[in-house]
User: Which sequence fits this backbone?
């Protein structure tokens, strides 16, 4: 059974701090990894994708991938209250995305 | 680009009734996915179409569920008869190259009473 594991949270972070979200995946054959943000009552929105080991930065967001450890993370710098949402990690396996259960992030003003 | 369009946004129906959910994928996207999301089970893949052909329907929970994609711009998910345990948010997503991720529609919140 291919799985993606995430801590469900909630993860509470003060405004302006760095939020660190993590996930692990079981399929060593996975080559593409994604972070989606989902606000309450809304649909998942793709915010980051990463395909190679190392870091990928986009604005306040940095995705990190370590294939040897089967570990993916998302860092959010200068966290804002608008970053409060559930963050879903997904790994591409065969023809589909394998989804984590999501981590609820709360940014406290 | 209008994105993935789903209708209706909300549906309330009585147990035993037929429910049809609709999806228009992004033009040029050749992969289409139907998902169900609940608090208990998270995102569950129901069925996957590639070039209008169903590739994997192993996630369809029962024979009460059926899906069609008659052309590249339209898909339906039908539940007949509906049951209270079918209450969930149903998402449609499409992709041009799956390695680049999916785009989700706004979802249909289904309540079966």
Assistant:
């Amino acid at each position: 059974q291919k799985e993606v594991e995430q801590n469900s949270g909630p993860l509470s972070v003060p405004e302006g701090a760095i939020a660190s979200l993590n996930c692990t995946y079981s399929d060593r054959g996975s080559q593409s990894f994604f972070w989606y943000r989902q606000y309450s009552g809304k649909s998942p929105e793709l915010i980051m994708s990463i395909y190679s080991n190392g870091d990928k930065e986009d604005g306040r967001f940095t995705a990190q991938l370590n294939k040897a450890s089967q570990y993916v993370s998302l860092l959010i710098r200068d966290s804002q209250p608008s970053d409060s949402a559930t963050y879903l990690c997904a790994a591409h396996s065969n023809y589909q995305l394998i989804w984590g259960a999501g981590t609820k992030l709360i940014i406290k003003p | 680009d209008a994105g993935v369009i789903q209708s209706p946004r909300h549906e309330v129906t009585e147990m035993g009734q037929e429910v049809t959910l609709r999806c228009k994928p992004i033009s040029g996207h050749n992969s289409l996915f139907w998902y169900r999301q609940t608090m208990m089970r998270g995102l569950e893949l129901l069925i996957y179409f590639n070039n209008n052909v169903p590739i994997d329907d192993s996630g369809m929970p029962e024979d009460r569920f059926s899906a069609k994609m008659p052309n590249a711009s339209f898909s339906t998910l039908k539940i007949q008869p509906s049951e209270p345990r079918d209450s969930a948010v149903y998402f449609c997503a499409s992709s041009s190259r799956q390695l680049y991720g999916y785009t989700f529609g706004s979802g249909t919140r289904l309540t079966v009473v």
Remarks:
- Residues 64 and 70 of chain B are 19 Å apart (CA to CA).
